[in-house]
Amino acid sequence: MTEEVKVFRAWGSPFSYRVELALRLKGVAYEYIEEDLSNKSTLLLEYNPVHKKVPVLLHHGKPIAESLVILEYIEETWQENPILPKDPHERAVARFWSRFLDDKCSLALWMSCWTEGETQQNFMEQAKECLHLLEEELKGKKFFGGDSIGMVDIAASFIAHWLGVLEEMAGISLLDEEKYPNLCKWTEEFLKSDAVMECLPKRANLLASFQARKQAISATTASV
Amino acid sequence: MADQPKEVKLYGHGFSGYCTMVHSALKLKGVAYEYVEEDLQNKSEALLRLNPVYKKVPVLVVDGEPIAESLVILQYIDDVWKNPPLLPEDPYQRAKVRFWADYVYQKLVPPVYRIRTSEGDARKKAEEEFIANLITLEDGIREELWSAGGSFINGEKPGLLDVIMGSCHTGFKYLEDVAGVKLVEKDRTPLLCSCMEAFVELDVVKGP
C-alpha cells in the first residue's frame, strides 16, 4: 500500500530529508515526488499554498506541511521505533531542542557559510554558541534521543551531513573536533544508521550544488 | 492519574502574550500554580539558571524541572493534565492545529515586533503584512478546522489555537493604539474576532 504515503521533497533539502528519515526509521513504505525548487509543481503549491515549500507529507490524500509538524504526525500515526519519549517532561525537552535547531541554530550555521567579513564573524559567533549548547546537551548520551535516534537527532541531521559540505564550500571551520567532541562522536554514530544513509544526498552532489550557487552569487555581485 | 506533579511555578511578565498563554492553559486545566513576576530589565538569577538558552519568560517549572518556549510549554501542559484537552484526538486534526499554531509564531509574531519597533514606511509594511497573514490564518482555520456550532476555533470548548490567539487579544489591542491603525477587524477576520472575544470572556480565564 505504498501509494498511501507520499513525500514531496527536494533531493538536497535537509528539511524533506527529516521526513524521509523518520518514515524509514519506522519502516513505513512511501513514494517520493521530486520537486525542482526553482519550478515548483502545481500539486505542491496546491498542497502547501501557505508556505509553498517542501516537505509535504501526503497520507490518504491529505497533506501536511512543516517538517516538525510532520514528524509529530508520523510519531502519532506509526508507533514502531518511537522518536519521542513517553515522559511528558522529556518530550518537552525534545520539542525544545528541535525548535532550537530551527529557530536559532540552522540560520546561524547556514548564514556563517554564505556571508563575509564582519557579518560572517557575527554569524559564526552565534553558530559556535549554538554548537556549544548542543554539545552540552549531548553529554553522556549516544544520541540526543538517548540510546536510539529521536526527533532531535532527526532535526539535527543538517549538522551531521550538510554542515561539513557548507564548511568546505565556504572555506571555514565550525564543527571543530577539539571544541565539540560529543557532537563529532554523535555525527559518527548517526551516520552508522542504515536508515540515515539510505536517503542522504551524496556529498559530492551537495558540494557541487553549493559551489555552483556560490559562483552564481559572485557573478551577480561582480557584474553590479 | 497516578503521578500528578505537585509543585508548579510560572516565571513570567505581565505584558508578555506568551506568558498569558501559559496562564490561560493552566487555568483552563484547573492547575494550582505559583506565579513569579520577572523584572525583564533585571532578570533574576533563577530565571537565567532555569532558561540559560534564551534567558526569557515564560518558564514553567514543574517539580523543579524547567520548560521554556511557550509552544513547548503549552503542549507539555496538555500532555500532563489531560482535561480539558487542548488538541483534538485525531492525528491529522492535531497536525492541522500544530501547523496553524506554528504559523502564528512564524508569520504573525515577526510583523508585530516590527510594528512595535519601526516607523514610517517600514511600519506600514509590517502592518500590511500582519493584516494579510491574519486573513490567511482566518481562511485556513475556517477551511481546515472550524465547524459551525462552537464559539471557539476548537469547537464548543477552547483548544490550543484559542489559547494562543485569545491570549494575544489584549496585546493586539495595545498594538493598535501604538500603531494608530485597526489591525484586527470583524469585517476582515470575523471568525478570529468572535473566537478571541469568546475566549477572553471565559470566567476561568478572567479570574485570578
TrEMBL record, chain A:
Membrane-spanning ranges: none
Domain GST C-terminal stretches: 87-216
Boundaries of every GST N-terminal domain copy: 3-82
SUPFAM superfamilies: GST C-terminal domain-like (SSF47616), Thioredoxin-like (SSF52833)
Catalytic activity: RX + glutathione = an S-substituted glutathione + a halide anion + H(+)
Domain of life: Eukaryota
Alphabetically ordered keywords of this record: Transferase
PANTHER family: GLUTATHIONE S-TRANSFERASE U8, GLUTATHIONE S-TRANSFERASE, GST, SUPERFAMILY, GST DOMAIN CONTAINING
Protein name per Swiss-Prot or TrEMBL: glutathione transferase
Source species: Musa balbisiana
Automatic annotation (TrEMBL), chain B:
Domain GST N-terminal per the UniProt entry, residue ranges: 6-85
Keywords for the protein's UniProt record, in alphabetical order: Cytoplasm, Transferase
Protein name: Glutathione S-transferase
Record Pfam families: GST_N
Reaction equations catalysed: RX + glutathione = an S-substituted glutathione + a halide anion + H(+)
Span of domain GST C-terminal: 90-208
Organism: Musa balbisiana (Banana)
PROSITE patterns found in the cross-reference section: GLUTAREDOXIN_2, GST_CTER, GST_NTER
Main location, first listed in the record: cytoplasm
Gene Ontology cellular component terms for the protein in this record: cytosol
Molecular function (Gene Ontology), one example: glutathione transferase activity
Coiled-coil ranges per UniProt: none
UniProt-listed Gene3D superfamilies: 1.20.1050.10, Glutaredoxin (3.40.30.10)
GO biological process: glutathione metabolic process
Function statement: Is involved in the conjugation of reduced glutathione to a wide number of exogenous and endogenous hydrophobic electrophiles.
Record-listed E.C. numbers: 2.5.1.18
UniProt cross-references to CDD domains, sorted A to Z: GST_C_Tau (cd03185), GST_N_Tau (cd03058)
Subcellular localization: Cytoplasm, Cytosol
Family named by the database record: Belongs to the GST superfamily.
Top-level class of the enzyme under EC nomenclature: transferase
